[in-house]
Amino acid sequence: MPGRVLVGEGVLIKNCRKKQKKRQFFLFNDVLVYGNIVVKNKKYTQQRIIPLEEVKLEDIKDDEVMHNGWLIKTPTKSFAVYAATPTEKTEWMQHIQRCVDDLIKRTGKQPTGEHAAVWVPDGEATKCMHCNKSEFGLLNRRHHCRSCGAVICGGCSKHKFLIPTQSSKPVRVCDTCYGNLSKGRTGINSEVVDESQTENASNAEETEAVKIDESESDFRERNVDAEYKNALTSESSDSEDESKDSGLEAIEAERFINEKRTIL
């Protein structure tokens, strides 16, 4: 795309559903891209593209385990990322926010007001966060409410509700959120969850702390150059251990990669 400039890039820890994983992030002046690292500094797959007008940043306070984190919130998906040092966290957040502000000022685009909930990682909930009774195991799977992000059991999430910013079809929500979302609504586009058609059971994995070298996560300011012709590829790889992304998102990612190649 004409006028697209690579501002900087680096490695961050992304909080995925089951555990934390290293992801390579590329900040452009209009989009934020991240992907799986296949070959360090050479090949990345499963790229995801986030238009910057949809991005909202939110600070995360340090705890005993994780430090230097913040939330990246969008209408379709929100998640936590972590840098190696406080300085790198500050640099990342400042650069992203400046690009968001410049894009809105330059294009007149309106920032998005509604953002998806951040999912609570599986390892942080040993029992349902709704009833606080149902313990998770091989026969009692974890589910996530797409409205509030809580980890819930099947009995506390019997309904689906249409959240247009996340999916074209009704998605699973907890009973509390279903009641709140459906208040005063007529002709509600919702349905009862059929547990036999949901995803296969999987063993819960404890959240693992992942370390990154400061040299990896250091925000590197860049201008687009020829070395990025082969940096982003659309080859298939093992998918992330988190919620399935839509086919449309994958198509858009491939389109972006092709566009990027043409402007180098």
From TrEMBL:
Keyword Cell wall biogenesis/degradation attached: no
PROSITE patterns listed in its UniProt record: PH_DOMAIN, ZF_FYVE
Domain PH intervals: 5-101
Keyword flag Zinc-finger: yes
InterPro entries from the UniProt entry: PH-like_dom_sf, PH_domain, PH_domain-containing_F, PH_Phafin, SOS1_NGEF_PH, Znf_FYVE, Znf_FYVE-rel, Znf_FYVE_PHD
Compositional bias (Basic and acidic residues): 208-228
CDD domains recorded: FYVE_PKHF (cd15717), PH_Phafin2-like (cd01218)
Region Disordered, residue ranges: 193-250
Key words, A-Z: Metal-binding, Zinc, Zinc-finger
GO biological process: endosome organization; endosome to lysosome transport
Gene Ontology molecular-function annotations: phosphatidylinositol binding; zinc ion binding
GO cellular component: early endosome
Residue ranges occupied by any FYVE-type domain in the UniProt entry: 122-182
Protein name: Pleckstrin domain-containing family F member 2-like protein
